[in-house]
Amino acid sequence: MQIIHKTLKISSKEYKKILSLLNKKGQSRLIGGCVRDALLDKDTYDIDIATNLMPGEAINILSSANIKIIPTGLKFGTITAILNNEKFEITTLRKDIECNGRHAKVIFSKDFAEDAARRDFTINALSYCPFKNEIYDYFDGFKDLQRAKVVFIGKAFNRIKEDYLRILRFFRFSSYYANQLDYESFKACDTLKYGLKTLSRERIKSEIDKIIVSKRATQILEAMFKIGILELIFSIQNYEIKFFERANNFKLELATKYALLLYNQQNLNLKIFLNWKFSKHEAMQILSILNFLNDAEFNIKKIWFEKKNYKEYLLAACIIDKLDYSQVKEFILKYDTLSHPKFELNGNDLLNLNIEKKEIGAKLEYLKNFWIEHDFKPSKSELLEKL
């Protein structure tokens, strides 16, 4: 183990109080992401604490100080402490005794080195004591962080077999913290990728959500596509790298990113997205963008009229070469500050003209499109004359 003497700036006002209380009866440190990000001078608001105290001991100590405790994952040794609206996840040191590719069976430990060894990547195994200003580095994670490397602790093949989600975690952490993919880890991901089929869709989607919005999403998704992971998860057989290269020039919503990823997919529908564990809202948003992108005739005025986030649709169309960016910029400048006019017609107006109920929806849509195409100017009576 290497001890690095360094003062870290932690984005929390209360973490030292929590640690001080726990350290009266045991030993506790900041662990994982908050240490890693502080070393990179990034703000970190998820404060994780590792302690050699048993969960019950930690609960008694903190409760006695009137700190609210939530037994988040008590059987795994995890509690959440809340102090002045700040949350701290506190976990008793653990050691893996059995892994099945999905979940690990653990026992509690008193050894920080054992706890560090069960973590996936070297950069996630760093711990920090703010009272001594010491960083504890068991696996050269500090060097890997400086060199922008994401590597497994131990053999990548063995660590992935313990939990196949680590395949996606490797790509996710590489997208944020690595300049390039570690070759041994990448090959292990390729070899073991079918283990992803044993995981829940919720766990898979959670990782993809984070990858797809990263700055290096273009390169990472391309690597995942090359070894068949995108096909395995989303049946993607054609990945357009240029779309994501262009997408990096814009701050796009998650749904828009997914629409670009899935643009060339055939026969997508709500049921498929729900099976992939997208929420209904997410699925409808992605499908709406895809329908717009696949429409033979873009009606950008209609999108402006109907969608609050109309810019997402237009920018996506620019990215796939369906619209010219200068044209879109000009449209946004003209329409973005305008109030939306009201479409005065409704179904009752058509019923009063003795139009059959089954035809009303289509005729209303036709009249609305005509109204939009004519800059929202035709009056109610003028529209009715079109019937």
Keywords:
two-stranded antiparallel ribbon, alpha+beta, Beta Polymerase, domain 2, 3 domains, cca-adding enzyme, domain 2, 387 residues, 21 helices
Please, could you describe this protein's structure?
This protein has helices at residues 15-23, 33-39, 55-64, 112-117, 141-146, 156-162, 165-177, 183-192, 201-212, 217-226, 229-234, 241-247, 254-261, 270-275, 280-293, 300-306, 310-319, 325-335, 347-351, 357-373, 380-384; strands at 2-5, 28-31, 47-51, 68-73, 78-83, 86-92, 94-99, 104-108, 127-129, 134-137. The chain is an alpha+beta fold and 387 residues long. The protein folds into 3 domains: 1-147, 2-Layer Sandwich (Beta Polymerase, domain 2); 155-239, Orthogonal Bundle (cca-adding enzyme, domain 2); 341-384, no CATH class. The strands form 2 sheets. Strands 1-10-9-2-3-6-5-4 form an 8-stranded mixed sheet. The protein has a two-stranded antiparallel ribbon with strand order 7-8. Helix 6 (156-162) packs across helix 8 (183-192), helix 10 (217-226) packs antiparallel against helix 12 (241-247) and helix 13 (254-261) crosses helix 15 (280-293). The protein is elongated. The model has no long low-confidence stretch (mean pLDDT 94). One of its GO terms (biological process) is tRNA processing. InterPro entries: Bact_CCA-adding_enz_type3_sf, NT_sf, PolA_pol_head_dom, PolyA_RNA-bd. This is Poly(A) polymerase. Residues 181-235 form the tRNA nucleotidyltransferase/poly(A) polymerase RNA and SrmB- binding domain.
